[in-house]
Amino acid sequence: xxxxxxxxxxxxxxxxxxxxxxxxxxxxxxxxxxxxxxxxxxxxxxxxxxxxxxxxxxxxxxxxxxxxxxxxxxxxxxxxxxxxxxxxxxxxxxxxxxxxxxxxxxxxxxxxxxxxxxxxxxxxxxxxxxxxxxxxxxxxxxxxxxxxxxxxxxxxxxxxxxxxxxxxxxxxxxxxxxxxxxxxxxxxxxxxxxxxxxxxxxxxxxxxxxxxxxxxxxxxxxxxxxxxxxxxxxxxxxxxxxxxxxxxxxxxxxxxxxxxxxxxxxxxxxxxxxxxxxxxxxxxxxxxxxxxxxxxxxxxxxxxxxxxxxxxxxxxxxxxxxxxxxxxxxxxxxxxxxxxxxxxxxxxxxxx
Length: 352
What we know:
about 350 residues, Oxidized Rhodanese, domain 1, five-stranded mixed β-sheet, four-stranded parallel β-sheet
């Protein structure tokens, strides 16, 4: 069987992209559909997509597919043809990025997962044949003006921190699995109100709306195509944009501006910033918001402690990580809840 893995390192992959003569289209898609043999689909899809240098991250499970991809513009038609060769992927709704990038993805990764969106639910906790009413951008705007409406962000805290809809409830949840029971509890007194939910591209709202309906919420609605589609509709139809700030995305861009407002702060100096980064100390790699000034001051790290480690030769860093992991397993605070995140950074670098 062909090797279904790209073994080049990140630097080599970036150099490959620099030699390309075409711009790329970044898009996402999902579909909840029964896939009896996800491993077979994974292998066939990888072979066909990699042949045409299509990059991205795709998760396949028995419940469906969740994908973000980067396609060379001249290969776009071929990409659609490839999708249409699979019954499960024919006639998908594709969500084009708000802002395209040639470097959104560096390689193609297709993984078979237990679920395409980890939810922590039992099979009978939701029925994906019964989801919320899908609203266009215009309909969503009008619904937000209804005094009986409650707007809820179905994303993790670090996403809503840099951008969200006006008057939206933004749960302090780190994962979708954690978010669902939190949302149910936060809305327990709003079962007879008009629930308006939104996420990045719509995939999480499908499960969240079904979950609320299962828990006897009466009027559940979701933004069709999520924030990404909303931005396109607002521009194309000259609508008022009620989303403020930046839309967090799960690729190398880490975000795309919906509006110019910066509604978040640098986690180190508290100056306005909406730039997410991972700590440059690979033993930490915490995701946090950092302004350009602190990025220069701390060399892309979250603290002086991490700056000192990241300044060491790479072999010394690897040795240090190995020694520390033997003494006490390293805990990567990949995201952490917002209050804890700021406290971690504060404790690691008292002089900030």
